[in-house]
Specification:
two-stranded antiparallel sheet
């Protein structure tokens, strides 16, 4: 059962995991054409694509010198409607559609960097502005349509030095995570489209639509 803020009638779409011979912790990236295809379906009211980092042993990027293991890219208004993403912000503002190079960070990361709201920082090669602070606790409670956490994972080697590696996937910490708009996220190397949530119009049959998407497009589909 998902700890969503909002009950939503819709589907969650992922690329079939068996398509690429990736490590067990990796996800198969979705192609951006999946967004356009879902937007064209008559049953669909809102399409919410999410991009995120593939789990790695090393930091994906850095925020003004601080290692960042997780990046989440969203369409702000869509995620607010579907999952209540805007409710995690406790200081400053939530992200706005179409506003590039603005980010949300945790209170922990804000303290680590010693900055205030509206500070301009370097994220990889891009200059970004911190528009809001999210609550780590509220983000932990925010689950996707299929009940999985919205935060990406990183890889950790649990073995002591000299021992064979024991690699496990674990959620990124609040001081290692940046949340931004979809286009800003996709500029960062190692960030890919991971899933699309689609909210259906009132009266549409969710299971029937999910089945059609799975058959027509060969996606892994979760009906909510």
């Amino acid at each position: 059962l998902s700890n969503q803020y909002l009950p939503v009638s819709g589907v969650l779409v992922r690329a079939p995991s068996g398509e690429l011979k990736l490590g067990e912790h990796m996800f198969t990236p979705l192609d951006k054409t999946a967004i356009e295809w879902l937007q064209k379906q008559g049953e669909v009211e809102i399409v919410a694509p999410k991009a995120e980092t593939q789990p790695l042993l090393v930091a994906t990027t850095a925020l003004s010198g601080t290692p960042i293991f997780g990046v989440v890219g969203i369409l702000p208004s869509a995620e607010a409607r579907l999952l209540g993403f805007d409710k995690i912000v406790v200081e400053g503002n939530y992200l706005r559609d179409g506003e590039e190079n603005t980010i949300l960070i945790s209170g922990e990361l804000k303290d680590k960097l010693g900055i205030k709201i509206n500070a301009t920082l370097r994220l990889g090669r891009e200059m970004v502005r911190v528009v809001g602070i999210y609550s780590e606790e509220k983000l932990k409670w925010l689950n996707d349509m299929d009940g999985t956490p919205v935060t990406p994972n990183k890889l950790v080697n649990l073995s002591p030095p000299g021992e064979p590696p024991n690699i496990v996937a674990t959620p990124v910490e609040a001081d290692e995570l940046v949340i931004c708009g979809l286009e800003t996220a996709l500029k960062i190397p190692g960030v890919f489209l991971s899933r699309i949530d689609a909210m259906l119009k009132k009266g549409e049959v969710v299971n029937g639509f999910a089945e059609r998407v799975a058959l027509e497009r060969n996606y892994d589909v979760w009906a909510s």
